[in-house]
């Protein structure tokens, strides 16, 4: 237990090694006032994963890409997630961090059509591990058949 408590307070860089040498993500956290450790950890992993998947450097990507190229990259990653059947809520959470990061670096990205397309294609998404809470009728049914076990 002490071992886990030790890791609780360690920085993501210390645990996983510094994946990308970049200040843009830290600037994004400061700009958006994101201070919660787990939020920062997940956002950092999602953003770094995004740039690994498209195989581009953050600074170069933000300076040299057109909005059409950004939309195409997002579309490719989305289709990849659908191909491996990633749960819809996980996809939504992933792209939310990417969207916030990209918008914080260029406000015009907010108006891209791809965000509406993603939102519409992921409507009604719920957690894939949604727990079932039995009602009184369900409990009676289970108890009535308990002797069969």
What does this structure look like?
This protein is mainly alpha-helical and 149 residues long. It has one domain (2-148). Helix content is 66%, strand content 0%. Helix 4 crosses helix 7. The longest helix is centred in the middle third of the chain and has 18 residues, at 88-105. The protein is elongated, with a radius of gyration of 21 Å. Residues 1-21 have low confidence and may be disordered. This is Core-binding (CB) domain-containing protein.
Give a summary of the structure in a few sentences.
It comes from marine sediment metagenome. This protein is mainly alpha-helical and 149 residues long.
Summary keywords:
disordered N terminus, 149 residues, Core-binding (CB) domain-containing protein, mainly alpha
| Beta-strand residue fraction | under 5%
State the end-to-end distance. 38 Å
Number of domains: 1
Helix-strand topology string: HHHHHHHHH
Helix percentage: 55-70%
**Outline type:** elongated
What is the gyration radius calculated from CA atoms? 21 Å
Report the total helices.
9
Characterize the quaternary organization of these chains: single chain
- What is the typical, i.e. mean, pLDDT? 80
Structural class of the secondary elements? mainly alpha
**Count of distinct strands:** 0
Major pleated sheet: none
């Amino acid at each position: 237990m002490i071992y886990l408590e030790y890791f609780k307070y360690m920085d993501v860089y210390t645990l996983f090694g510094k994946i990308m040498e970049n200040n843009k993500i830290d600037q994004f956290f400061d700009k958006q006032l994101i201070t919660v450790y787990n939020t920062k950890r997940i956002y950092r992993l999602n953003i770094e994963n995004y740039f690994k998947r498209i195989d581009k450097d953050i600074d170069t990507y933000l300076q040299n890409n057109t909005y059409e190229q950004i939309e195409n990259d997002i579309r490719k990653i989305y289709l990849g997630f659908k191909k491996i059947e990633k749960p819809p809520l996980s996809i939504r959470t992933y792209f939310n961090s990417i969207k916030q990061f990209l918008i914080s670096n260029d406000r015009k990205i907010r108006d891209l059509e791809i965000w509406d397309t993603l939102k519409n294609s992921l409507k009604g998404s719920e957690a894939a591990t949604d727990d079932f809470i039995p009602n009184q009728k369900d409990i009676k049914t289970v108890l009535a058949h308990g002797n069969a076990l």
